[in-house]
Amino acid sequence: xxxxxxxxxxxxxxxxxxxxxxxxxxxxxxxxxxxxxxxxxxxxxxxxxxxxxxxxxxxxxxxxxxxxxxxxxxxxxxxxxxxxxxxxxxxxxxxxxxxxxxxxxxxxxxxxxxxxxxxxxxxxxxxxxxxxxxxxxxxxxxxxxxxxxxxxxxxxxxxxxxxxxxxxxxxxxx
Length: 174
Fold this sequence. Notes:
The protein is mostly helical. The protein has 8 helices and 2 strands. Helix 2 runs antiparallel to helix 3, helix 3 packs across helix 6 (105-115) and helix 7 (124-133) runs antiparallel to helix 8.
């Protein structure tokens, strides 16, 4: 079994690798979003490792100032013995949701990342609008993002069916 992260170890990693504060805020929001989804799925009878979702979400952009930051973060995490977290964050930038089957921890962290803009949960439409219109906009990037949106919408529908509620409702009290 690999070592497991906790809040203090995540802070130490952020400090050691110079993760900027705005990225840390984004990571906290992804962690919170994923954790809420994991807990809702568990209340509905699933067996998601909510702590793995929480801490993998917290470090998913540990190396965001580097090219291929998911792969770089995974290398760092593996070298330190955090294998489970490394497996979750490695491909989050180009992740394709499975078409069927139950969601796992990687699915949830990747979904949470697509529902958070900067440091807050905003849902898929606002997140995609932000990504499409950020500097460097191209027709090709817009096309790819819209293709991913459809796959993400399908995955959200499956998750919400399993949870028995909408993801938005998990944030209604905030």
